[in-house]
Amino acid sequence: MSAFHWSTRVYYEDTDAGGVVFYANYLGFLERARTEWLRAKGHSQLALAADPGVLFAVSEVNIRYRRPARLDDLLVISCEPAPGGGASVVFAQQIRRDSAVGELLAEATVRVACVDAGDFRPRRLPPGIFGEWN
After folding, report:
1. What is the pLDDT of residues 108-129, one digit of tens each?
2. CATH topology for 4-116?
3. How many CA atoms lie within 13 A of 98 on its CB side?
């Protein structure tokens, strides 16, 4: 499975007083890329919450910051899912400057659990959402 790429710009609200992206804001960029990956596959999180009644919750994050992103930078965030078990998926993600092969700014591994929309208990991944391995 090839990586999905999503682009965004660094805005003033993303930065600290020095014009550098605040470390916690990288998590937001990663989250948006995963959401847009799901949308590109034809799935809305609102629709999935209604039928088949599932939500996705981050259960683990490991991030390594390599270089700072700065105000007005164009960021390209990659998202590559892999099976994480019956009720989770693990995403390998990177944040790069300017292009999908640009300077590596951060890399992360994010485990996302599938949970029931009603009681938040773990639930098997719905068939077809995460590709042929599901």
Report:
1. 999 999 999 999 999 999 887 7
2. Thiol Ester Dehydrase; Chain A (3.10.129)
3. 3
